Amino acid sequence: MTADTPRPWYTQFWPWLLIAIPAATVIAGIATIWLASREPVALVVDDYYKEGLAVNRDLAKHRLASERGLSAALAFDGAAGTVQVTLQGRSDPPALTLTLVHPLAMNQDRSIPLQRSSPGHYGAQAAIPDDRWYMDLEGADGGSTWRLSGEIDLRTTRRVTLSSAAP
Question: At residue 54, does pLDDT exceed 80?
Answer without folding.
Answer: no
